């Protein structure tokens, strides 16, 4: 059967359902391009999930070499569970108002598991992190994003998540993200009443668990707009009761929260600094530490006058979105950018605290927002490369593989550095040169081990102890350690000064008085030796 094309004498031959293409060069080029077009994305299969889980476990596995569960040197109470008698106390109204009841209950449960507490703690956190990565993958597939698996994998392997998984007291961040992603998954699906019921119930639990979850209705509204491009009220009316509930619970819970007392201008400056720091850590996570010094003293502080700089930098993006709102990529950018701002607001509004109580920058405060910034970055790269067709797909997969390999190396190597408690405290003492507590912990850990450490020489230990005593002059036990090292190094004059300082400012035990008297005798200070022995008699 023959059919003549309009405006062209060339014929197209049909054979059943097949069309034999013409031989014209221009038409042939169109056919070639259509064939090279990138194929539609498919949901991840079981192999993808296995790869995701295995690579995540491999990357973080070195933390199981650490025996640290709750640091005995941390002066900051990261969780009140240690002062509770029962897990049921976590569900009292006053406790729900200020703490995450799910996280507190989990701390009690993990103590009943017959394994090393540190291993149990790290294993639970790692399993929760993997769960969050899987839920992220399911949500991105529900939004029909082609780079769903690379985004989930990059998030799962991200070095910035290490503090949240490793350090005690930060499990609520992982649980908060899980609840956000679970609520969004059922809200996006919205296939039947079961999905609506599950979404509602998860939202209620989420609201009392983590402050960042209060924006779930807004996030779901952005997802609906991205998928449908609709501004009809009927597409969003199911969000109203959840939004009202979020406002009610938000006022109730946040009214009972305690925050670090800072002036408004100082808090604005900290928020701006937090924003740029978290953005850097998310996209270029090469600087790794459990806690980062606050950079006010290094000239990094933006100051109050530049506190609104992040907002100003985002205005051009929103103008571009408004001009192209009907296009899918513009709605995707609106979804990613606004969702990131809604979730990162929780992190930048908080004040990070180091183990000794000083201001710090902490990775765990951006954990709930981390998947969004990763998704924006990866999906943008994927969209650009897919314009190139099949060659672009090959290129994107190569780039993502390199990203994943780099992340595995960074995460695993840093996790390994945390596995040795001596090395961990040494790193913290190097990263916090003006803080006394890491130095104190390092010296204590080395002393308890009963082994010579290649990390510190006697002279380095002396410098650390002198630095600590400048800040903590009342710590007599450190002066006694300093005396021992002085005597080993033959610094008798320095040892003599510390002996006199202790005898003058405290009431040492008889053993120390006898030791001091014998030292005075060897130095020819018979009168001082007699005074020390007289105090023993008294």
Describe the protein in words.
The chain is mainly α and 538 residues long. It has three domains: 2-36, no CATH class; 52-69 and 81-419, no CATH class; 422-506, Serine Threonine Protein Phosphatase 5, Tetratricopeptide repeat (Alpha Horseshoe). 63% of the residues lie in helices and 3% in strands. The protein has helices spanning 25-36, 46-60, 93-98, 101-110, 117-142, 148-157, 162-166, 171-189, 193-207, 216-228, 239-254, 264-283, 309-323, 328-348, 370-386, 390-419, 421-431, 437-449, 458-471, 476-488, 492-505, 510-522, 526-537; strands at residues 2-4, 11-15, 18-20, 292-293, 352-353, 359-361. Strands 1-2-3 form a three-stranded antiparallel sheet, with no helix packed on it. The chain has a three-stranded antiparallel sheet with strand order 4-6-5, with no helix packed on it. Strand 2 and strand 3 form a beta hairpin. Helix 10 runs antiparallel to helix 11. The longest helix has 30 residues, at 390-419. The chain starts with a strand and ends with a helix.
